[in-house]
Amino acid sequence: MDNAQVAATADETFCSSSKSQLGKSRRWIWVGLGIGLMISAISNKTSVSGLLLSAGFVLFLGIVIDWFIRRQLRPGRPLVTLTREVIESPIFSGKLKRYPWKDIAAVSVEAHSNGQWIKLLLAESSGIQNKRSFWTGRNDAQPLIPISHFESETQERLLGAIQHRIQRYKEDAGESYQVPVNSLTAAREFQERLKSFAPIPWLTYSIIAINVVVWIFTLTKGASTIQAPADKLLAWGGNAASEVQRGEAWRLLTATFLHSGLMHLLMNMIGLASAGITVERIYGHRLFILIYLGSGLI
Question: Checking CA distances to 285, which of 99, 129, 145, 233 falls within 20 to 30 Å?
Answer without folding.
Answer: 233
